[in-house]
Amino acid sequence: AQSVTQLDSQVPVFEEAPVELRCNYSSSVSVYLFWYVQYPNQGLQLLLKYLSGSTLVKGINGFEAEFNKSQTSFHLRKPSVHISDTAEYFCAVRGGGAQKLVFGQGTRLTINP
Amino acid sequence: NAGVTQTPKFRILKIGQSMTLQCTQDMNHNYMYWYRQDPGMGLKLIYYSVGAGITDKGEVPNGYNVSRSTTEDFPLRLELAAPSQTSVYFCASSYLSGGPNEQYFGPGTRLTVT
Fold first, then answer.
1. What is residue A66's predicted lDDT score, i.e. its pLDDT?
2. Which of A104, B11, B41, B52 has the lowest CB atom count within 10 Å?
3. Which of A89, A79, A77 is nearest to A15 (CA)?
4. What values do phi and psi take at A27, rounded to 5?
């Protein structure tokens, strides 16, 4: 079975500062990894996903994530955040043959001016 | 395309009442899902469906029922509402399941049971 741990429940940063949201997963099989974003009072929207190939994945809104198999991590990064990035971010994993997505607990990103 | 739509957006129920949360998708997706989101707990899968007429339990199915009579609709039924069912409910769909296929989410229904 797969599981996901998001190491920070809240991350406050200043506008234009870089940010990293951490995600670790456990799985005994090859995995597909996803980051979703939830803006206030909205549903979840896909930011990016890792399927195979290059370990650096670029997504929407300037976000990127790096898949590290040896450390079983899939951390999300942005070099310079904007107030509009204020949201909750969810990491999710799916094992190769599984149907279901397993979500982490979420990280609330707060941007201070 | 409207994508995944959910109604109502908000609802307050008294303990013991029943209600149906509606979910419709217009993307001709085979797979549909219901999740609940509790603060600090991420999303938990309640039920899912692999096609019209076929449903299966997720992690937290107790207290809920679903049906899938058409490809487009996947309603979630609460029969005897309890305070523990206070949550935000999300419906999602995907064309295929498994592997790299992403899920598309509706805007959610915020339910309070008092």
1. 95
2. B41
3. A79
4. -165, 145
**How is residue B71 annotated by DSSP?**
S
- Chain B contact present for A98, CB below 8 A: yes
Burial of B107 (0-12, 13-18, 19+ CB in 10 A): middle
Measured between CA atoms, how close is A35 to chain B, in angstroms? 10
pLDDT digits (tens, 9 = 90+) for A12-41: 999 999 999 999 998 777 788 999 999 988
Dmax (CA) for chain A in angstroms is 44
Contact predicate B64/B89, CB 8 Å: no
In whole angstroms, give the CA distance from residue B114 to residue B107.
Answer: 23
CB atoms within 10 A of CB A55: 12
Cβ contacts of A70 within 8 Å, gap of 6 or more: none
Question: What is d(CA A74, CA A87) in angstroms, rounded to the nearest whole number?
Answer: 18
Phi, psi of A18 (to 5 degrees): -80, 160
CA pair distance B91, B96, nearest whole angstrom: 16
> What pLDDT, on the 0 to 100 scale, is given for residue B42?
85
Does a cis peptide bond (omega within 30 degrees of 0) precede residue B8? yes
* Contacts for A53 with CB less than 8 Å, ≥ 6 apart: none
- Most A CBs within 10 A among B29, B37, B93, hence the mutation to make, goes to B37
Measured in residues, chain B has a length of: 114
